[in-house]
Amino acid sequence: MAPTSDTDSASDTYDVIVIGAGPVGENVADYAIRGSDRTAVLIEHELVGGECSYWACMPSKALLGPGAALAAARGLPGARERVGDEHPDRDAVFGWRDAMTHRRDDGSQVDWARGAGLDVVRGHGRISAERTVTVGDRTLHAREAVVIATGSTASIPPIPGLREAFPWTSRDATNIAEVPDRVVVLGGGVVACEAATWLADLGVREITMLVRGDRLLPKTEPFAGELIADGLRSAGVDIRFGTTIGSVDRPDAADTGYGRIHGGTATIGLVTADGEPAGELVVDEVLVAAGRAPASTDVGLDVVGLEARGPVEVDDSLTVPGHPWLYAVGDVNGRVALTHMGKYQARVAGDVIAARAEGKDLSGSRFRATSDHGAVPQVVFTRPELAAVGRTEEEARADGVDVEVVAADIAVAGSAVLREDYRGRAQLIIDRARDVIVGATFVGSGVEELVHSATVAVVGEVPLEKLWHAVPSYPTVSEIWLRLLEQRRV
């Protein structure tokens, strides 16, 4: 449903004003007023529910699910013979994706907001003075707080001809409506790897990933990127490291809408990371997955003396230093660009706003977003999956930790019965001095459900001597915990 100019209240004064009504904005508003007589308003210029609901997390996982189900079936005798080598049914996959995104109709999200006591104002919100936000010709005032929750936008590098070629960004890839025959993917991060996975599932004949660096997912452990690269190659993806786009020529480019092929063929001039020519590619579509930038350039930060672009700096209470009425949560603050971490920050900020409004003490740990520092969990839904939390070995050493690394292939009864050709690996990063885990990485089928136990161990600083008594159920992939701990048994 296209946004309208409706407003749900004639009031111009609220306790809390939130600019951005994605899951992060929704959560901070809800937590700030829940169980009280305080008021809050959400301002949204696109769809209530935000990037995650319509263009990121939900549609991407819906696109990945059918291929993953078929791959799981092909991993076991008896099921393999039934499913064969067929790709998922495109129309059915698109229908499932559209059902998960409500076909970009935000009516149910608006209903939720109203039910939670939140007003909704459609339009672009901009700070126009302290505790004041302007939306069109309307000016809103905040008694307690203004929260910036505007998220981030896809970055398009300044490559000659690239922007003029109307390349796909993540929004096009997740809302794919026409399947190109040949695609080049620029980037080697999470969006690039997941998109390459579902594009292969959907039957794209040629997928070429151009990665400026020397590995995929460079912020994770090296073995994780290697295993995921192996999985993509087995699906037919051509990965070219040390290579990027030097130029794009697409004379028939046209903005045909989300997920539709944007014109005629594109000729891609390739260059090495050093800028040397590396040949050409002719493709039907270009997907740019080269990072995201905080959406902070037009929210009025300059009006209150802040930098009008880049991440909005905050402390652990998510408050902008020097502006006790102003908060920034989620991607826009540049701390962690993950929906679940943005929602975590929103819960902390909402509690802080509520406590300040009620004159309560803020010394408790619930009022500080400490998990942003060294306890961030993440899952990458490639094949195999990657699940990780906390520091990598490199990060831990850089932080001065006396590191012990414990690693093992995932070869347990649980993985053997999960699929015949199971391949995976797990690694723990241990602070030797404190005998606690500060990082964990798992790669393999079914590991996405292992990461929360690792997160609890990291956040809770559970001694490994204590973890020895956390017995994994048999036969599950969780048995890898026992194999890892056995390596330290003396």
Outline the structure in words.
With 490 residues, the chain is an alpha/beta fold. It folds into three domains: 164 residues, FAD/NAD(P)-binding domain (3-Layer(bba) Sandwich), CATH 3.50.50; 128 residues, 3-Layer(bba) Sandwich (FAD/NAD(P)-binding domain), CATH 3.50.50.60; 103 residues, Enolase-like, domain 1 (2-Layer Sandwich). Helix content is 28%, strand content 25%. It has 15 helices and 22 strands. Strands 1, 2, 3, 4, 5, 6, 16 and 17 form an eight-stranded mixed beta sheet that branches. A five-stranded antiparallel beta sheet has the order 18-19-22-21-20, with helices on both faces. The protein has a four-stranded parallel beta sheet with strand order 10-9-8-14. Helix 3 packs across helix 5. The longest helix has 19 residues. The radius of gyration is 24 Å and the shape is globular. The relative contact order is 0.12. One of its GO terms (biological process) is 2-oxoglutarate metabolic process. InterPro entries: Class-I_Pyr_Nuc-Dis_Oxidored (IPR050151), FAD/NAD-bd_sf (IPR036188), FAD/NAD-binding_dom (IPR023753), FAD/NAD-linked_Rdtase_dimer_sf (IPR016156), Pyr_nuc-diS_OxRdtase (IPR001100), Pyr_nucl-diS_OxRdtase_dimer (IPR004099).
